[in-house]
Write a structure and sequence with these properties.
alpha+beta; PH-domain like; eight-stranded antiparallel sheet; 15 helices; globular; START domain-containing protein; EDR2-like; START_lipid-bd_dom
C-alpha cells in the first residue's frame, strides 16, 4: 500500500477481552488493547499510546479468508460479555475469540474488520498474479513467533476510556430533569404495521395500549421514554441480579439461569415475590440487536427438566411477552441519551370473557398491570441514577489518522491472517517483562462524540411514491418486452383467490416505506410504489444439503427458453433455512428492458461484493399471524450482506444472491420461531438497493413477494426437481 493511502486509513482502537482456554483446559479472560489500522491488526497488553516502547503480542493482516462471527452473549468468569469468533475460512484449525462489554461494541469491531478486509480486497485486485502466488507460499503468522520492535504510530489517536480496569465497570447514566411531554413521530419500521393500538390508561408518564383488532384475548403494551442508552436498558432487563431488579421490578422474587442455549437464547427459572403469591415459572429468552441499535427480547413459557422445584410454590402459565428498546435523539441541551421502551404482553384467550368481565374495570389491581408498569419502574430507576458515578467507557475509536508513522506496518505481508493471533492459549501472559511494576502515564486526552442532529420526518400520505420509470435504472429507450407469465412454472402455486393458501403472489410496494427524494435533508420516507422488476415465480425446495447456484439448475426457469429470452432476471435464494431437511425459498424477478449502464442497479449487479454487502436490503412484514412472530420478525429493513453470508453469481442474463440464513445465530433464531407458525402466517418481503447518495434518491423497490401459509412438507425435493408441465 502506498504511503498516501496509508495516511487516509481509518484507525479503530480500544480495549477488549481475549478469551479462550489454555493448554490445561482452564478458561482465561485477559484485557487486551486491539488496534486495526487499514488492513493491519495488532493486539497489545498495554495502550501503545501510553507505553510507546511496548511491542504487540499479536499482529497480522485481516486477509480475504478472515471471517468474523458473532457468538452472542456469554457469562465468562461471572461476567456478561459479548463474544466474537475470528477464524480462517480455509483452515479450521486457526480460530480464536475476543469479547466486548456490549453488543454495540461488537457491531463496531465487526465493522472495523469488514473495512480491513475490504482494503485487502482492493489491494489484491491491483497485485499481479505472480506476486499473489509468492505471498500464498509464505508461512502464515506464527502466534508464538518472535516479537517485532516498533515505534508507536498512535500518538495522535483519540483515546476514550480508562484502560483495562474500566472494562470491569458499567457506565452509569447521570439523570437530568424530566422532559415535558413530547411526541414521537418517527416511522417505527420500513413496512406499514397491521395492528390498531388504542391508549386506554396512563400512569406515571406511562401509556398503556390495547390492540383493538385482537380477537379471543388481549394484546397490551406499555410505552415510555427512559433516559438511558439502549445498551444499559437491555442489560437491566436481562440481568438475573435480584438486588438490581428489586430497584424497578415490583413483582419478581427470584431469577435463576437454568440453561444457556447459545449467545442469543437461554432458559430462566423465576418466582413472583411471595408476599403477593407463591408461584414459579420457566421461560425462554431470545434477544437480538438490530442494525439501527435497537434491541428486541422475547419471552416464551417452556418446560425444562432442570428447573428447580420450591416447596409450597405452584407453577403458573407465563404470558408471552416482548421488550423493544429503540434509541431516540439525545435530550436537547444536555445530551442525555434516551430510548423508547415498549413492553408487549398477551393475555391468553382462555377465560378471556370471564377475566374481562371481572377484572377489566379493575385492571390496576391485576398481575398484567403490575408487569406492564415495569416500564415505568425502569424509567424512574434510571432517572434516580444521577447519584451514581458517571463512567463513560467507549471501547472503539474511529479516527482518520493522517500523520501516523506506517513504515513498520507496510513490512507485514498480506497473507498473515490475524486469526492466527488469538488461537489457543495466551503465552504472552508468561513473559517476565509484564510482571514488572509500571507507572502509568497520566491521561490528558479527551474525546467527544458529536451526534448527528436528526430530524424525524412524518410520512405524508399525499407524497407520490417513486414510479419504476422515474429512477432511470432500465434503458427506457428500448421497447419493453411483454412477459408471458404462463411460460414460467414453479414448485409453489400462484395465489388464485383471497382464500387460497400454500401459495405466493405479488403484493406491490404500498405496504413498504423507502427513502424519499429529500431523505438526506428531512429523513422522510414514502410508500414504495410499484416494484421495478416483475415477480415471475417462487420455488419452495428441500434437500439434505444446502442449495446454491439455483439458477444454473436445468429445472430453473432461468434455463428455459422463455427465461433466456428475458433481458435480466434477479434471483434471491433464501437458503439453508435452519431445519431438517434444509429448505430454500427462491424468488425470481424479471426486467422488461436491459439495465442502463452506470445506473445503481448496474453498479450492484456488476460491482464487487463489498459494494453489494453494503447496499442489499430486505424488508420483512408479517401481514397475518401470531403477534409474537410479528414482533420477532419486525418491519425494519436489514442489510443482508452485513447480517448473514451472501454469495453472488453474475452470469449471462441473470444475477443470483444466495442468502445463507444459517450463517447467523440471530437469523436462525428468528427463522426457527417463524417455522413453528409458518402454516398460519402471511409474510410480505421486499428487496431493494440502499440509496446513500442524493443522486440515488428516491429509493425504489426491486421486487416484492407475499408468501401465504406455506406447508414445509409440500416443498419439492431438490434432487428430483424438474420442470412441471
Amino acid at each position: 500500500m502506498s504511503s498516501a493511502s496509508e495516511k487516509r486509513a481509518s484507525v479503530y482502537a480500544g480495549w477488549i477481552y481475549h478469551v479462550g482456554s489454555n493448554s490445561m483446559g482452564y478458561q482465561f479472560c485477559n484485557p487486551r488493547y486491539l488496534v486495526i489500522k487499514g488492513k493491519y491488526v495488532e493486539m497489545y497488553k498495554r495502550d501503545p499510546n501510553d507505553f510507546p516502547s511496548k511491542k504487540p503480542i499479536r499482529r497480522g493482516v485481516a486477509g480475504k479468508f478472515t471471517m468474523v462471527k458473532e457468538i452472542g452473549r456469554q457469562i465468562i468468569h461471572g461476567r456478561v460479555l459479548y463474544v466474537l469468533k475470528i477464524y480462517s475460512r480455509v483452515d479450521h484449525g486457526k480460530h480464536g475469540e475476543i469479547a466486548c462489554t456490549s453488543a454495540e461494541e461488537v457491531e463496531k469491531w465487526m465493522s472495523a474488520f469488514r473495512h480491513a478486509k475490504e482494503e485487502v480486497c482492493q489491494e489484491g485486485s491491483s497485485e499481479s498474479l505472480v506476486h499473489r502466488c509468492v505471498l500464498s507460499r509464505r508461512s502464515m503468522f506464527n502466534v508464538n513467533g518472535p516479537r517485532y520492535h516498533s515505534k508507536s504510530y498512535l500518538s495522535k489517536l483519540i483515546y476514550i476510556g480508562r484502560g483495562p480496569e474500566s472494562l470491569l465497570r458499567r457506565p452509569s447514566m447521570v439523570a437530568q430533569d424530566p422532559l415535558p411531554a413530547v411526541s414521537y413521530t418517527k416511522q417505527a419500521g420500513d413496512a406499514v404495521e397491521q395492528t390498531d393500538w388504542r391508549c386506554f390508561r396512563t400512569v406515571n408518564g406511562l401509556r398503556i395500549f390495547e390492540d383493538v383488532k385482537s380477537e379471543n384475548g388481549a394484546i397490551m403494551k406499555s410505552v415510555g421514554v427512559v433516559e438511558a442508552t439502549p445498551e444499559m436498558i437491555f442489560e437491566m432487563i436481562m440481568t438475573l441480579d435480584i438486588s438490581l431488579r428489586h430497584q424497578w421490578d415490583t413483582l419478581t422474587g427470584q431469577l435463576e439461569l437454568v440453561e444457556h442455549i447459545d449467545g442469543h437464547t437461554d432458559i430462566v427459572y423465576g418466582t413472583f415475590d411471595p408476599k403477593y403469591f407463591k408461584r414459579y415459572y420457566v421461560f425462554s429468552r431470545y434477544w437480538r440487536r438490530h442494525q439501527d441499535g435497537s434491541y428486541y427480547i422475547t419471552q416464551m413459557e417452556v418446560s425444562h427438566k432442570g428447573a428447580p422445584r420450591k416447596p409450597g410454590y405452584r407453577k403458573i402459565t407465563l404470558n408471552p411477552g416482548v421488550w423493544e428498546i429503540t434509541p431516540l435523539p439525545s435530550k436537547p441541551g444536555t445530551g442525555t441519551p434516551r430510548s423508547l421502551v415498549t413492553q408487549i404482553m398477551e393475555i391468553k384467550s382462555t377465560g378471556w370473557g370471564r377475566w374481562k368481565k371481572s377484572h377489566y374495570s379493575k385492571f390496576h389491581a391485576t398481575v398484567p398491570y403490575a408487569m406492564l408498569c415495569r416500564t415505568a419502574g425502569l424509567s424512574k430507576y434510571m432517572l434516580a441514577a444521577h447519584h451514581q458515578e458517571r463512567l463513560v467507557t467507549k471501547s472503539i475509536v474511529n479516527h482518520d489518522e493522517s500523520t501516523c508513522e506506517t513504515t513498520r506496518l507496510s513490512q507485514v505481508e498480506t497473507n498473515e491472517e490475524f486469526y492466527d493471533a488469538i488461537t489457543a492459549g495466551d503465552p504472552a501472559d508468561e513473559d517476565d517483562d509484564d510482571s514488572e511494576e509500571e507507572e502509568k502515564k497520566p491521561l490528558n486526552k479527551t474525546g467527544s462524540h458529536k451526534l448527528r442532529r436528526v430530524t424525524w420526518g412524518v410520512m405524508l400520505l399525499s407524497k407520490r411514491p417513486p414510479a419504476p420509470g422515474d429512477n432511470g435504472e432500465l434503458m427506457l429507450g428500448c421497447s419493453a418486452m411483454e412477459i408471458n407469465m404462463k411460460l414460467f412454472k414453479s414448485t409453489l402455486r400462484h395465489q388464485s383467490s383471497e382464500k387460497d393458501q400454500n401459495c405466493w403472489c405479488d403484493p406491490g410496494g404500498q405496504g413498504f416505506m423507502v427513502r424519499g427524494k429529500t431523505y438526506m435533508k428531512d429523513y422522510l420516507k414514502v410508500p414504495g410504489g410499484d416494484p421495478l422488476l416483475k415477480l415471475l415465480t417462487v420455488d419452495w425446495l428441500k434437500s439434505d444439503d444446502k442449495i446454491g447456484a439455483i439458477a444454473k439448475h436445468p429445472a430453473s426457469i432461468v434455463q428455459t427458453p422463455a427465461g433466456k429470452a428475458l433481458p435480466f432476471i434477479f434471483v434471491v435464494n433464501l437458503q439453508q433455512v435452519p431445519a431438517k431437511p434444509n429448505y430454500s425459498l427462491v424468488f425470481y424477478y424479471a426486467a422488461d428492458r436491459p439495465i442502463r449502464p452506470g445506473s445503481l442497479l448496474d453498479k450492484f449487479a456488476n460491482g464487487d461484493d463489498a459494494f453489494r454487502n453494503a447496499r442489499f436490503k430486505l424488508i420483512p412484514s408479517i401481514v397475518e399471524g401470531y403477534w409474537v412472530v410479528k414482533r420477532a420478525v419486525g418491519t425494519k429493513a436489514c442489510l443482508l450482506g452485513r447480517a448473514v453470508t451472501c454469495h453472488y453469481i453474475r452470469e449471462d442474463n441473470y444475477f443470483e444472491i444466495d442468502v445463507d440464513i444459517g450463517s447467523s445465530s440471530v437469523a436462525r433464531g428468528v427463522i426457527g420461531l417463524v417455522l413453528g407458525y409458518v402454516t398460519n402466517i402471511v409474510v410480505d418481503l421486499a428487496v431493494l438497493i440502499e440509496a446513500k447518495e442524493e443522486s440515488e434518491l428516491p429509493e425504489y423497490l426491486l421486487g416484492t413477494t407475499r408468501i401465504n401459509r406455506i406447508v414445509p412438507e409440500d416443498a419439492e425435493a431438490y434432487e428430483g426437481w424438474r420442470q412441471h408441465p
